[in-house]
Amino acid sequence: MSLYRQTGGAGPDIALLHGWGLHGGLLADLAASLEPRHRVHAIDLPGHGRSPWSKGAGDLEGMARLVAEHLPERTALLGWSLGGLVALRIATLFPARVTRLVLVATTPCFRQRRDWPHGLDEATLAGIAKGLARDWRGTINDFLGLQVRGDERQLETLRALKQGAFAHGEPSTAALGAGLEVLRSVDLRPELRRVVAPTLVVSGAYDRLTPPAAGAALAAGIGGARHEVIARAAHAPFLSHRETFGSLLQEFLGPA
Questions:
Q1: Most buried residue among 114, 163, 203, 220 by CB atoms closer than 10 A?
Q2: What's the CA gap between 213 and 8, in Å, rounded?
Q3: How far apart are CA 226 and CA 213, in angstroms?
Q4: Which residues pair with 5 in a beta bridge?
């Protein structure tokens, strides 16, 4: 099965993976900023945007393996939110293929657990699932609202997310359900020690979905990982704080 991939620029490869319910086009400005020094691949995850759905992508491992089939043999990976979980799983499954790893607003465990207070509670996730069955479009819009809550540029960032949310077409309802189940059930904390690529974890200081404490724990679990918190940002710092985020990213990726 072929996933939609938009490629541009020249230099070392880097692949960009987006968040739940969205598509790679939301990362277009980020891709454009990287293209002068990198060959950038923005991928629509299975069943999102212009990529068809595959039952084989019904869990995180299936998503990761399918996306990996569409990556260069060796590449840096940048994953945002759900895309960060996919990037993490690729890095543990195929460590020799990932040259650098950037995890943006990513948590190894999205749901609260007894030993993990840094996630959404089960009731909130159940409410999202219920809303998804009733009105998936409204549920995505509500989820976008959660992503920007607390951001100093909340309205501007929400406008950008909503305007671009369906620019590549509507997501598959099967993909939305599978992605939500990944967020609800996956706990990658035991896998973190298997990541060998140099890793940058970026958190928004006001992120309500993947709080900075989750980013700090994620970085602590990966040997040598670096954790950066962007002040007054929420869940989409690459949109709300482009210059700060871009500077951190370029510094980490280094010269082409």
A1: 203
A2: 35
A3: 13
A4: 43
* Residue 38 appears among annotated catalytic residues: no
- Per the annotation, the verdict on 115 as an active-site residue is no
pTM exceeding 0.85: yes
Q: Where are the beta strands (DSSP E) in 31-97?
A: 39-43, 75-80
Q: Does the structure show a pLDDT above 90 at 50?
A: yes
For 169-205, write each residue's pLDDT tens digit: 999 999 999 999 999 999 999 999 999 999 999 999 9
Nearest by Cα to 21 from 190, 137, 116, 123: 137
Mean pLDDT of 204-220: 97
Domains of the chain: 5-253 (3.40.50.1820)
How far apart CA 108 and CA 81 sit, in angstroms, is 10
Q: Which of 23, 118, 168, 235 is catalytic?
A: 235
Clarify whether 59 is annotated catalytic. Answer: no
Tokens at residue 105, please? 């607003």
Instruction: Pick the catalytic residue from 81, 172, 203, 240.
Output: 81
Residue 33 structure tokens: 């900023």
Cα distances from 119 to residues 45, 125, 139, 214, in angstroms, run 23, 10, 19, 8
Contact 233, 205 (CB under 8 A): yes
Active-site residue, from 207, 227, 240, 241: 207
Backbone φ and ψ of 208, nearest 5°: -90, -20
* Closest to 240 in 3D by CA, of 176, 155, 174: 155
Taking only the tens place, the pLDDT of each residue in 102-121 is: 999 999 999 999 999 999 99
